């Protein structure tokens, strides 16, 4: 990664006025504001553009051009911000179990943060729902602002498993509607190198018939909920307010992208997604 990082520009992008301290409260603040302001999205994949993990490219895209990205972009940016703030942190790779019928590949990345000698997981790039930072301990639980609960359990075959229990309306739609603990992703603590991230990023953005090469996916955390747009289908749950609709035209799609998610696509790009042919 490049040595320079414009922390002031990043903090302005996520709406944080002063640099937080490198403690648990600071970690929670930065991750939460990141997810409230930088949307999760794979639109460049659908537009046939390669997903670059060059740090300067990621910063330009997500910070300076006010776009979003998926986990490999989001958590790289988040990790660099944590380093600039004085946190000790490194990347991990994970297997996403949502609707998995067999052991899934490592298509997700998150960050391991050490605070006062204790390990925490912090994830600013999971598009399925919002999980706050969690202390890495067997049975650790935390409640998200939307009311969902998350817990960590040891997995005999896969290291650690993050599970969620909560309203499926505050997810990207892959959660089961029943009120039960559901696996989100599993991970180990083995070192992850840039080449590992490049490999997983390439597979995720190019493998045919997978979620990110099949659908146009956008999501964003809300103060008390979640908004998501999967192809034409839009859902938004914020507290007691719930909206669900199919977007009927490319023009309406562009307006919804801009108004809700802060993403500005031109007419050619919107048509290039292939949603209104």
What does it look like?
The protein is of the alpha+beta class. The chain has a single domain, classed as 2-Layer Sandwich (Arylamine N-acetyltransferase fold), CATH 3.30.2140.20. 31% of the residues lie in helices and 27% in strands. The protein is built from nine helices and 13 strands. Strands 5-4-3-2-9-8-7-6 form an eight-stranded antiparallel beta sheet. Strands 1-10-11-12-13 form a five-stranded antiparallel beta sheet. Strand 6 and strand 7 form a beta hairpin. The chain is globular and about 55 Å long. The termini are far apart. The mean pLDDT is 96.
Care to give the gist of this entry?
The protein has helices at 7-14, 24-37, 43-46, 55-64, 71-85, 194-206, 211-214, 250-261, 267-272, and strands spanning 40-41, 88-96, 106-115, 118-122, 134-135, 141-143, 149-155, 159-165, 182-187, 217-222, 225-230, 233-238, 241-246. With 277 residues, the protein is α+β, with helices and mostly antiparallel strands.
